[in-house]
Amino acid sequence: MKNRLIGFAFFLALLLVLGFLWGCSPATQRTTASPMEITDQLGRTVKLDKVPQRIISLAPSNTEVLFALGLADRIVAVTDYCDYPPEAKQKPKIGGFSNPNIESIIALSPDLILAASIHEKGVIPQLEEKELTVFALTPKTMDEIQQAITLVGSITGKEKEAAALVDDMKKRIKAITDKTSGLTALRRPRAMYLVWHDPLMTAGAKTLQDELIAKAGGLNIAQGLTDYAKISLEAVIQADPEVMIAGVGHGSGEDLTFQFLNTESRLKDTAARRNNRVFGVDANQVSRPGPRAVAALEELAKFIHPELFPGAK
Amino acid sequence: MIKIEMQDVWLGYGHTVVLKGITLRAMPGEMVGLIGPNGCGKSTVIRALSRVITPHSGRIFLDSKDLTRISRRDLARLMGVVPQMPLLPSAFTAFEIVLMGRNPHLGLFQYEGRRDQAIAWQAMARTGTTTLAERRVGELSGGEIQCLLIARVLAQETKVILLDEPTANLDIGRQIEILDLIKKLCLENNLTVLTALHDLNLAAQYCDRLVMLCGGRIHAEGKPEEVITKRYIQEVYGAQNCVYPHPVNELPTVLLTAGNRRRAPDQGG
Amino acid sequence: MSTPPANILPLRLTRGHNRIYAIVILCLLLLGIGGVAIAIGSVKIPFGTTFAILFSRLPLVDFTPNWSGGLSTIVLDIRLPRIILAGLVGAALATAGATYQGLFRNPLADPYLIGVAQGASLGAVTGFLLPSGWLGPEMVPLLAFIGALGGTAIVYGLARVGKTLPMTTLILAGVAVGALLGSIVSYLIISSGEKLHGIIFWLMGSFSLSRWSEVQVVLPYVLAGIALLILYARPLNVMQLDEEQAQQLGINVERLKLILLAAATLITAAAVSFVGTIGFVGIIIPHAVRLIWGPDYRFLLPLSVLAGAIFLIAADLMARTIATPEEIPIGVITALCGAPFFLYLLRRKKKVLF
Mutation test of the interface with chain C: which of A81, A232, A273, choosing the one with the most C Cβ atoms within 10 A? Predict the structure, then answer.
């Protein structure tokens, strides 16, 4: 009788201890030592032994994703161009976007490096040689941006935050596409996003801006072109855009393209100029494939369909 | 009627003094010959007279006017030069080169007219170069070019003509032909002619007066029979020679003896 | 000497006639290529409409327009100024090239010999790198122009010896100063980072976005300069003899050198400042004209004007149609024409060329 009681107490104690252990570990915190294998957006299989604590971002869009997921204190370095949110500017820098300083990166002993598509050929192999963990994000569409956010969430243990962010993005996008996806071509204003004015470069099909214009209910006059492409002034005049958009920056140098759209005398007869529908959007928001692309979409929607999306310009 | 006059001209290139106090004169209707060994300054005299180079000291007069006071264009109307070995642009035709001789007579933006072309053509006819008219200069021989240059100076219609070795590349027939022509023009039109010649016999035959240069100085001056003497030739050229009167016209003729060349005492002074 | 009768004059005059016909033919060819160039573009406009638009601008013609305003803008405000500018630049570069070849008596001389190109590049690159708040994009052509003239002035100042300007010294100084300025430009380019794109396009030369305001600026310089050079054609002929002979024929050589250099440099600087440095025009066209019609500058210059204009309008047409909608930089087209031309020149054994 006494043996069975001790055995039963022991069993209870074990249960309690296990229950205690079970309850204590937060569901979202993986302290496991088992490695994770995950495929990045370049199709590379990346092995992660543990949750990364020292992250370096090689692209402004990646930096924005990291901050949006609340990973600010795990970021050890960013590029010179990472300027959003403002706290990002305080972080140590490891060089430019296309040419980061490999030595600086190595010196910081990162356990995760978030790269971009332009690093595929040169930078990533160099980092891999040094046995650093590189995860590439190459989103070109809104869906891919959301996928990128989700991926970052899962490799950094921030799945919940990532899911929340993606949800929010989806909701806001849906708020717009609900009203615009049904629009026929006739009801879509002809729109153009001008990347640069000398030579004239616009965003053709398969670019982020093209997708934003389409979702915002516009008809990209350059959809016959692919990627960022040169376009002739003649073709622009012929296409007679009703809405013209250019990126405006915070520095004075970025606004030349916007000025060009407003001041070029040969464009004065376009519908956009006659009706005063030349708009500037935050250049970074509209071209960085990050969480703020949704804000850009909302702005574009207001420009292109003010009757559907009223709001201050 | 123009006379040339050089007074005590000293001239050099850089640190080398080439002409040392040259005083000479040429009168209208007179053909003066400049003779002397290589490097004695014959070409330099001609270049100084045509104001291509400026003397360090001394004065030059053209028709009693100081040379430096005459404008470039006026000078070219009065004085024509046949240079020794000039560069000619090889793609131009012979006629075009001769036509350039008309330049001093044309206004700034004026082109050569019919009359200019006729004068140039006639100059070529007199020098026997009309067959070369359409040929490019780059294809011509040295002798043909030399005749062409003389045609050019004739087309220039100047009162003074300076010639620097005008017969150097010509065969003997042509030499006589050209010098006959020049002499004839000199006499008929009362031109003042100064010519550098290396051929002493031709110089004696054609020139009314000779100036013999040696080492930048005038060694002898006067009529051919006064200057072309065995002694002077030996002094200046250092060549064994004999001087005889020409069987036909009694002018001095130099005959050289091969070998036994003795260096002249004051050569290169 | 009396004037001989005119009928003894040789075939000289027939050569003169040939060249006058040549001028007439080239004028017609120029109008032809201009017409073709204005009718072709990235937007297809029917020939009839294009010419109707053109003629409607003539004062006495009365058309009721049956075309959209956009087409009118395309033909009159995009294509026409572009073609005219291309013609002006081609004419300027060819004439300047012919003049430089005559001044230096060197078949390899081109308008960029004494620092114009490098000076203009330096000016333009500086303009690109200045903070954009400064007077906007108009600064680049102005700075390029100043740079072009400045570069040449430096070369001229270095080469001058007392009152004379020895041509060989001028070439050497030009090469040296050009190399120096070029290296500064290269350094600025490398350290300019992302502003590079615009600079590279300028350096390779481009007529895209040519506008009437540019034509208005370039036209007076180029026309005045070319007119002056053509007026000096005869003395330039005489300059082909060496300087000594030219002097003996009454030419004030130093003054002529200065005038010709100044005029040729001015038209080159004007041409280059808006469009960038387009190579080969200044060296090929005079040679081609010389090959066909001889070295007499009285004809070489006006024929170079026409041939240069025709060449560059045609080259620009090719640049914008071969790889449409991409525009090939026009310097590439002229270089592609230049290389085989030079090979051809080298292989010629027969006639004397220069």
Answer: A232
What is the domain range of residue C307?
Answer: 22-56+83-347
pTM (2 decimals)? 0.83
Report residue B246 CA to chain centroid gap: 24
Question: Which amino acid is located at B136 in the chain?
Answer: R
Residue of B nearest to C229 (CA): B109
Interface contact flag, A231 C209, Cβ < 8 Å = no
Mean pLDDT on C319-344:
84
C4 closest CB neighbour out of B50, B118, B139: B118
Please list, residue by residue across C73-97, b when 16 or more beta carbons sit within 10 angstroms of its beta carbon and e when fewer do.
Answer: bbbbbbbbbbbbbbbbbbbbbbbbb
Contact A230 C326 (CB under 8 A): yes
Is C296 within 8 Å of B96 when comparing Cβ atoms? yes
Would you say the C-alpha torsion C217, C219, C225, C228 has a positive or negative sign? negative
CATH 3.40.50.300 fits B4-85+156-256, yes or no: yes
Please give the structure tokens belonging to residue B245.
């009167």
Tell me the torsion sign for CA atoms A148, A154, A160, A163.
positive
Binding-face residues of C in 252-271 toward B, CB within 8 A: 252
Is residue B102 within 8 A of residue B80, CB to CB? The reply is no
Chain C residues within 8 A of A226 when measuring between CB atoms: none
The pLDDT confidence band at residue A34, using thresholds 50, 70 and 90, is low
* Site from C40, C74, C203 to mutate, A interface, most A CB atoms within 10 angstroms: C74
Binding partners of A (≥3 Cβ pairs within 8 A): C
Q: Is C136 on the interface with A (CB under 8 A)?
A: yes
Rounded to a whole number of angstroms, the distance from the CA of C132 to the nearest CA of chain A is 5
Pick the range with the lowest mean pLDDT from A35-39, A133-137, A170-174.
A35-39
Contact: C198, A253; criterion CB under 8 Å: no
Summarize pLDDT for B210-269 with one digit per residue, the tens: 999 998 899 999 999 999 998 899 888 888 888 999 999 889 999 887 776 665 555 444
Complex ipTM: 0.87
Contacts of C320 in chain A (CB under 8 A): 232
CATH number at residue C343: 1.10.3470.10
For residue C73, the 8-state DSSP code is I
CATH superfamily of the domain spanning A181-304: Nitrogenase molybdenum iron protein domain (3.40.50.1980)
Question: What pLDDT shows up at residue A199?
Answer: 81
Q: φ, ψ for residue B4 (rounded to 5)? A: -105, 145
Q: Please report, for chain A, the start and end positions of each structural domain, with discontinuous segments joined by +.
A: 36-166, 181-304
Q: Is the sign of the CA dihedral B237, B241, B245, B248 positive or negative?
A: negative
| Range scoring the smallest mean pLDDT among A59-73, A169-183, A243-257, B101-115 | A243-257
A36-166: CATH homologous superfamily? Nitrogenase molybdenum iron protein domain (3.40.50.1980)
DSSP label at C76? I
Give how far A122 is from chain C: nearest CA, Å: 18
Beta strands in chain A (DSSP E): 36-39, 45-48, 55-57, 75-77, 112-115, 134-136, 190-197, 200-203, 219-220, 228-230, 243-248, 278-282
User: What mean pLDDT do residues C39-66 have?
Assistant: 79
Identify the residue among C229, C249, C251 best suited for mutation to test binding to B, counting B beta carbons within 10 A and taking the highest: C249
**In chain B, where the domains are located:** 4-85+156-256
Contact flag for C and B (3+ C-beta pairs < 8 Å):
yes
Residue of B103, B121, B134 lying closest to C238 (CB–CB): B103
CA distances from A250 to A253, A281, A284, B244, C195 (A): 8, 11, 9, 103, 17
Neighbours of C240 (CB within 10 A): 25
Question: Which of A47-61, B249-263, C87-101 tops mean pLDDT?
Answer: C87-101
* pLDDT bracket for residue C238 (50, 70, 90): very high
